[in-house]
């Protein structure tokens, strides 16, 4: 597939022949915690600390990691829902950081988001038709109301909902139906790039499968690129072309999906994959789990050197001092560990 | 677009669409509410009664409220003058009925204006956060430092008297009170994913504040609005009594307590008693109705 060939773009490398759609360079998002009457800086949470990756047109990049590792914050930074502390986010070569509101809103028509919770991501006071039609109205895409309603009906059908749902309120629908409304809203402006922030995690397994298939169909139909943020590794493996693994605000490994799942190199990735149960009781019984020691450290005061060293089975003294950089092991397979 | 192909993959979608969500009829819901909030229901009926009296004052009132009749001064309640007459021979019942019009018009207008402005400022304050929020809230603190009546009197001193100025004066102290309560709710709404979605869709600040956040802060808004109604009627009566509100010869409850009340307290007590009773009942009704609204819409605010 050509998509995969394009996906071989190296993280942080110079622009290849086919420029990627999204290029994130050394992204940092530090939140300050203020305390006291004078609101002086008490601590800094390094939610994202130097993350770089690219996403090609039509490609799906999975972003996995445990809770609190900065996956969601990375997605929010790309959408500029947060103001990154430093680093750059290039959308078709144009830096979104420091862009003024006008040009940013123009770019925002082309990048959208699907949220985790289908119950809080739709305005409870608006009818479905308004929710999906409003973006078009605001951006003047279909100023004529008849045309807009036709387009809303079309979007609902594309997302597997009956156009009659237009006159419903979100609370009259099930979780899966609401998530489809969320997807239809994201598609309303014909975007090229969608951040799926745990888009299926809140749904029942049977509904999950339907929504994943829908996302796949839409990707093929409209040549969409996804940043698929998830902690569900089996979903990521099914849907993503490439997968990036995050730990405590940093990328530890990034590779093609098959390569990563078959040949994980970083000890954290190995532990993460090892935690996935095998759906065969016989095989599962014979397996020995190498559960990780300890808890994820606080991002307020992360360990020095390699952030993973307190829990790493391979750690040596030098891991406490040197911050490991991503290095390429095989084509497109990058890992941030000097010990593998 | 191959809609049918995609639809075919989702067998559940079509069937679910035809199921209509069960809906309780409006009257049935009202009945349930009345059983749970009997005090609220009674006060609600009183509020409706007051509104009807105010609206149909010209039809109900037996006499012209401003016409003086020196042949019938300070007459005790009788068959002809149900509640008696004042020192100018004006029928008290007619003046109270027309006074309801003044009280409710000023009360509703100032409460709605004050609460609505407070809603917008409170939501905007929460939405922008940071230094805008800080500035807004400190300005609100200055206004909150004054009791309602003192601030309203100061406003009358600045703007002057007359119904429109009185409305402005009564509205002013309501704004920070509503803004403060709405802001605390709006801070939670601000973090809702649908507000993030609105920002990601590139909507303007005003659209997000007015269309996406404010409609979801309706519970505190309505609660504040109903409590303001009773307070506004009381402030209007107080201002009129002090001669800073509505001016003679307009029929207003506060005005009716002035003058005649002191002079004729012993010889013709009905001149003061009936307008006072009207104020009490109206404020009582609106306050109890406000409490019932609060319990229904937001039980968490009960301790306030």
Tags for this model:
heterodimer; A: alpha/beta; Rossmann fold; four-stranded antiparallel beta sheet; 23% strand; B: 304 residues; MetI-like fold
Structural overview:
The complex is a heterodimer of chains A (340) and B (304). Chain A has a domain of 186 residues: 3-Layer(aba) Sandwich (Rossmann fold). Chain A is built from eleven helices and twelve strands. In chain A, the strands form two sheets. An eight-stranded mixed β-sheet of chain A has the order 6-7-8-3-9-10-12-11, sandwiched between helices. A four-stranded antiparallel β-sheet of chain A has the order 2-1-4-5. Chain A is globular and about 70 Å long. The two termini of chain A are 30 Å apart. The N terminus of chain A is likely disordered. The N terminus of chain B is likely disordered. In chain B, helix 6 runs parallel beside helix 9 and helix 9 runs antiparallel to helix 12. Chain B has one domain: Orthogonal Bundle (MetI-like fold), CATH 1.10.3720.10.
Give the helix proportion of chain A (percent range).
25-40%
Write down the Rg of chain B. Answer: 25 Å
**Name of the level-1 CATH class of chain B:** Mainly Alpha
Contiguous uncertain segments of 5+ residues of chain A: 1-17
What is the H/E order of chain B?
HHHHHHHHHHHHHHH
| CATH superfamily annotation of chain B | MetI-like
Assign the structural class of chain B, choosing from mainly alpha, mainly beta, alpha/beta, alpha+beta, or little secondary structure.
mainly alpha
Name the biggest interface: A-B, 45 and 28 residues
Taking the sheet with the most strands of chain B, its summary is: none
**What gap, in angstroms, lies between the N and C termini of chain A?**
30 Å
Instruction: Please indicate the percent range of residues of chain A in DSSP E strands (runs of 2 or more).
Output: 15-25%
Intertermini distance of chain B: 57 Å
Sequence of secondary-structure elements of chain A: HEEEHEEHEHHHEHEHEEHHHEE
Residue fraction in strands of chain B: under 5%
Largest sheet: number of strands, sense, barrel closure of chain A: 8 strands, mixed
What's the level 1 CATH class of one domain in chain A?
Alpha Beta
